Amino acid sequence: MEFDEHLYDLTVIGGGPVGMFATFYASMRNLDTQLIESLPELGGQVAALYPEKVIHDVAGFVPAKGAELISNLKQQLFEFKDKLVIRCDEEVLELEKQLDETFVLKTSKRMTHTRSVLVAIGSGAFAPRPLAVGYDHGLDNQKVFYFVKQVADFANKEIAIAGGGDAAIDWALTLEPVAKRVHLIHRRNKFRGLEASVDRLKASSVDLVTPYNIKQVIDGPDTGLNLNLQLAKSEEVRTLTVDSLLVNYGFTSDNHILKEWGLPLERRSLVVDENMETAISGIYGIGDAVTYPGKVKLISAGFGEAPTAINHLAEALYPERKQPLHSTSIA
């Protein structure tokens, strides 16, 4: 296995939006930084699963698609392409602190040496929560979907969306202008999304099918996809025929790798203090991977945590450098 003998100031683990911004900010602080991402491309879940999803909660970013946010972050990051190292399609397997307070990381491709570590792996490995009823899984990615890669794939189609949270509401509103019709199926009359999104949903043409549960999914070659729905707390059943079903019941996530690294966890999340530092000096965490009192799991919150972590570790590595008091300029 290759051993990278270069000693980096910082290794950022995770190339999603928060990890990308943290790497950019570290470069502005002139930290010798490498970014390691297990996927083949930067962008994390947003790039892999939600390129067409509209992002609403990033300050100064006019609501636009996830792919545009990632593109902007890449453009920002690549301003320092000559100063940093980006390694994609490379997984960190082991992390060990040395007697000299530095760290050796074993990845799927090399051994690498760093003075500090910033964990920004989000929720880790993830999988969509499946339909709670049996159905022909040959329909997956044909008529039953868990992700939307291209909105155009649903143009002029009759679409049913299962779910009642922010993701389901966002997809209903996103697909409404292009689909023939959108039905949103939820087991309660009340939705769990942001108030403004729920207001937009109720004012839209989306057909709200509540409170119903999906009891059966039957493929009708000549009639489309037949969804047998049961009214909550009732024996009443109705059938909804659509071209496609989009399931948005959320995700299960697995951050087991953090435990394997020997990091302090609470409910499978990395515990950090007010400086985003863990109980292991020199290891920091930001984004959805971490927990602390009042933690909010939003991209925008992760963006705010990045400068806190970077400024603190920069001062720890270089005490002679003063932390910037205001937003900095590259020029």
Structural commentary:
By secondary structure, the protein is an alpha/beta fold. The protein folds into two domains: 2-126 and 252-317, FAD/NAD(P)-binding domain, CATH 3.50.50; 130-249, FAD/NAD(P)-binding domain. It is built from seven helices and 24 strands. The protein has a five-stranded parallel beta sheet with strand order 6-3-2-10-23, covered by helices on one side. Strands 12-19-13-14-15 form a five-stranded parallel beta sheet, with helices on one face. A four-stranded mixed beta sheet has the order 1-9-8-7, with no helix packed on it. Helix 1 packs parallel to helix 3, helix 1 (17-28) runs parallel beside helix 7 and helix 4 runs parallel beside helix 5 (195-203). The longest helix is centred in the last third of the chain and has 19 residues, at 299-317. The mean pLDDT is 90. GO terms for molecular function: ferredoxin-NADP+ reductase activity; flavin adenine dinucleotide binding; NADP binding. It is an enzyme of class 1 (oxidoreductase).
